[in-house]
Design brief:
With about 130 residues, the chain is of the alpha+beta class. It has four helices and four strands, in the order H-E-E-H-H-E-E-H. The chain has a four-stranded antiparallel beta sheet with strand order 1-2-4-3. Helix 1 crosses helix 3. The chain is elongated.
């Protein structure tokens, strides 16, 4: 399961547990955290504010606390207005890298009969001194 799926699921669980609101996949908006803020991925909180009946900041803190208590993938969070910035734990990254390391076929996609044909052109580099 990829990181976005894991975080989308845990945000959905938090919203359902805390506010009794069922969410659909398109309601969970995750995006890369802006470089001026701490975090790896950001969850947009505004769609849940009405169900929470609280400010975006309070809603973000409640969801962030729920995620910290219930999912080891997130190591910390911070809230900027209606945006919940999530920091991914080092243990998640290490586990992911270890899984990639032991998978000899990681990143390899076998060609099938339906795969498009491609021509790869190789251009060797000839030293400029060759022409002088």
């Amino acid at each position: 399961m990829n990181l976005e799926t894991i975080l989308g699921t845990v945000v959905s669980e938090a919203v359902k547990t805390l506010y009794g609101m069922e969410t659909e996949a398109n309601q969970i908006q995750l995006q890369k955290t802006k470089k001026e803020f701490e975090g790896d991925l950001t969850a947009v909180i505004f769609p849940f504010v009405k169900a929470a009946r609280k400010s975006p900041e309070q809603t973000g803190h409640e969801i962030g606390e729920y995620i910290l208590k219930n999912n080891p993938v997130v190591s910390s969070y911070n809230v900027i207005k209606g945006f919940l910035n999530l920091s991914i734990s080092k243990s998640y990254w290490i586990e992911t890298l270890n899984l990639i390391h032991v998978d000899a076929t990681f990143g390899i996609k076998k060609a099938t009969e339906d795969s498009p044909l491609m021509m790869i052109e190789y251009s060797s580099r000839i030293p400029i001194s060759h022409f002088i």
